[in-house]
Every structure is written in structure tokens, then in C-alpha cells.
């Protein structure tokens, strides 16, 4: 039996589940654990991945929240057996480097997406470059995002972006309410692509950048690339694996 550390969101349901599970299986300190069991929804799972990135422990989630795309079903029984036969899904996050008006550069990781959003009623005016080559001289929009395959079914899908198969080595670039170019609906990029957004009028048309939940305001430039150093592993029941669920999302009506 692996040494398990249990973490839970602050909801009453998740806390009750944690109490039941720890009384049955114990609760290892995080520095001694071999696996983390996260109890909550997808938002809590993302926070768990960021919080425990330094140790890179595998994380097995159980759904006790509103959205549970990254979670398994919640059952108290047979947890060690479920963990031992779980299938791994290795997530490689995006690295965002955002330069703000004050001259600082802030770095953050995103397992789902990096999104740029206008801060006022004024539309954002952005220049878009890929690997140092300008692809759009001016994108006028409410915002734009770059999503991983794991994040392609979240905000990206809500913004009418494509669902990317897990393991496809692709990224989705999706505009949010684009005005010009009127017919541009985004792009599918190789995961090795380095994306740069330049804010063309940052003082009149301020823009913020968010990596998962880490927001940087009043930016002037953002670069995004897949991290080459960091990974996290999610564990899924074989009948509930992430690759199949992302595939099935394409057939949801």
C-alpha cells in the first residue's frame, strides 16, 4: 500500500469524505507520501497540482465538487487497489512570462490555459508572433487564450476553441470575441511553438494575463511556451481515463 496524503477542498462534503478516508487508510505527511489523493472539483485539482509541483507526486482525484473532468468517481472502498491499477496521464504545463508596465517580468505555470483579457470596456489590440515571426499584425478582441490538451475542454471550449486529443503534442490558440480579423477563429499549434503577444496600446487599452488562476495586470508583452522542466502526473481509473473522456467530449451534444 502506497503512503497516501489526503487533501480536500473546504466544502462540507469534501471534508467529510476526507475524514472517512483518513480514518480508514491513514494520512501520510506530504513530505513522506508517495501519492496525493485530492477531494473536490477541477478547480481544487488545479490548485493541488500547483501546490505540490515541487515534489511532483502523482495525484489521484475524486469528484466532490461541481465540475470533475479531472477527477475519478468518489468511493471509500478499495482505494489502494484503485490507485495501484490507475492509468497515468502526464501533464506538461505552459510557462507564461508576462512583462508589465512597471518593467517587471512575472513567470507562472498553467496546466489548463494562459488567457489574456481586456481590463476595461476598450477592446484589446494585440500583435501575435509565433517563434519570432509575426502572424497577425493586429488582433482586436476581448481576449485570447492558449490551451493545453487537458485544458482544451475548459475555458477554450467555452470560447468555441477546438478540443485537442490528449497526447497530441498540440496547443489551441483561441480568440475571445474577435472583432478583427473578422474571419479568424484561432489556430492549432505544435506544442513546441513559442507564442508571443504584444499589447499595442497598453495605457489606453490595458490587458491582464492569467495562467490558470495566477493573474498579472497591466501587461505589455506575454510569451508562452510549453515547460521543458516540469510535469505532473494525474491518475485515472482505467474505465475513466482522460484520453477517452477528452475524445468523448467531441460527441457531446
TrEMBL record:
**Name of encoding gene:** nadK
The residues listed in the UniProt record as binding NAD(+), with positions renumbered to this chain, are 42-43, 47, 112-113, 142, 150, 153-158
Where found? Cytoplasm
> InterPro entries from the xrefs?
ATP-NAD_kinase_N, ATP-NAD_kinase_PpnK-typ_C, NAD/diacylglycerol_kinase_sf, NADK
**One annotated GO molecular function:** kinase activity
UniProt record similarity statement: Belongs to the NAD kinase family.
Cofactor requirements of the protein: a divalent metal cation
Entry EC number(s): 2.7.1.23
Task: Report which superkingdom the organism of origin falls in.
Answer: Bacteria
Q: What is this protein called?
A: NAD kinase
* NCBIfam families per record: PRK04761.1
For this UniProt record, the keywords arranged alphabetically read as follows: ATP-binding, Cytoplasm, Kinase, NAD, NADP, Nucleotide-binding, Transferase
Q: What Pfam families does its record include?
A: NAD_kinase_C (PF20143)
Q: What does this protein do?
A: Involved in the regulation of the intracellular balance of NAD and NADP, and is a key enzyme in the biosynthesis of NADP. Catalyzes specifically the phosphorylation on 2'-hydroxyl of the adenosine moiety of NAD to yield NADP.
Catalytic residues, chain numbering: 42
Q: Which reaction does it catalyse?
A: NAD(+) + ATP = ADP + NADP(+) + H(+)
The record, for HAMAP family, names:
NAD_kinase
Organism in which the protein naturally occurs: Dokdonella soli
Amino acid at each position: 500500500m502506497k503512503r497516501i496524503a489526503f487533501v480536500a477542498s473546504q466544502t462540507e462534503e469534501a471534508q467529510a469524505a476526507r475524514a472517512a478516508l483518513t480514518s480508514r487508510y491513514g494520512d501520510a505527511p506530504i513530505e513522506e507520501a508517495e501519492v496525493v489523493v485530492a477531494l473536490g472539483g477541477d478547480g481544487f485539482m488545479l490548485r493541488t497540482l500547483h501546490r505540490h509541483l515541487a515534489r511532483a507526486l502523482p495525484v489521484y482525484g475524486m469528484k466532490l465538487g461541481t465540475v470533475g473532468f479531472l477527477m475519478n468517481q468518489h468511493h471509500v472502498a478499495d482505494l489502494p487497489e484503485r490507485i495501484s491499477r490507475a492509468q497515468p496521464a502526464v501533464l506538461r504545463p505552459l510557462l507564461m512570462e508576462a512583462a508589465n508596465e512597471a518593467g517587471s517580468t512575472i513567470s507562472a505555470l498553467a496546466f489548463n490555459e494562459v488567457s489574456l483579457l481586456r481590463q476595461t470596456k476598450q477592446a484589446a489590440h494585440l500583435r501575435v508572433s509565433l517563434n519570432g515571426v509575426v502572424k497577425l499584425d493586429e488582433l482586436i478582441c476581448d481576449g485570447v487564450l492558449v490551451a493545453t490538451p487537458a485544458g482544451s475542454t475548459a475555458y477554450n471550449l467555452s470560447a468555441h476553441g477546438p478540443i485537442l486529443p490528449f497526447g497530441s503534442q498540440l496547443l489551441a490558440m483561441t480568440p475571445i470575441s474577435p472583432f478583427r480579423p473578422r474571419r479568424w477563429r484561432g489556430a492549432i499549434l505544435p506544442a513546441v511553438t513559442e507564442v508571443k503577444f504584444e499589447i499595442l496600446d497598453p495605457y489606453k487599452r490595458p490587458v491582464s494575463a492569467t495562467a490558470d488562476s495566477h493573474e498579472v495586470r497591466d501587461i505589455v508583452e506575454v510569451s508562452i511556451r510549453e515547460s521543458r522542466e516540469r510535469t505532473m502526473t494525474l491518475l485515472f481509473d482505467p474505465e475513466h481515463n482522460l484520453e477517452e473522456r477528452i475524445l468523448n467530449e467531441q460527441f457531446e451534444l
